[in-house]
Amino acid sequence: MHWIILVIAGVLETCWAVGLKYSQGFTKLIPSILTVLGMIASFYCLSIALKHLPLGTAYGVWTGIGTVGTVILGIIIFKEPISVIRLICVLFIVIGIVGLKLVSSN
């Protein structure tokens, strides 16, 4: 269950990172409010997961999910460039996330 909460925290991190783009430096009210709510929810879920998972593992997975999700949404939503090297780098992050999960004792 703690891993599911951690994945939710990572997905919420992706949401608030994309929300930062839409908030335009917190100058747009609704996107800014949604971004801050996403941040709070993401940090809350992370804090719950940290009660039972090792800090380094949980934080690494959380930021990794957020990074991969943000890169993917940046490509899809904002038409950011795609390159083989960029996709390989994202693959390394995914491998790191899976690796941290596999070596975790929880």
From TrEMBL:
Q: How does it sit in the membrane?
A: Multi-pass membrane protein
Q: Does the record carry Secreted as a key word?
A: no
A molecular function (GO) held by this record is: transmembrane transporter activity
Q: Which Pfam families match?
A: Multi_Drug_Res (PF00893)
Chain segments annotated as transmembrane: 33-50, 57-78, 84-103
Q: Write out the entry's keywords from A to Z.
A: Cell membrane, Membrane, Transmembrane, Transmembrane helix, Transport
Q: Per the record's keyword annotation, is Metal-binding included, yes or no?
A: no
* Organism domain of life: Bacteria
GO terms for CC? plasma membrane
Entries under InterPro entries matching the protein: EmrE-like, Small_drug/metabolite_transptr, Small_multidrug_res
| Localisation | Cell membrane
Similarity section: Belongs to the drug/metabolite transporter (DMT) superfamily. Small multidrug resistance (SMR) (TC 2.A.7.1) family.
Designated name of the protein: Quaternary ammonium compound-resistance protein SugE
Species the sequence originates in: Clostridium tyrobutyricum DIVETGP
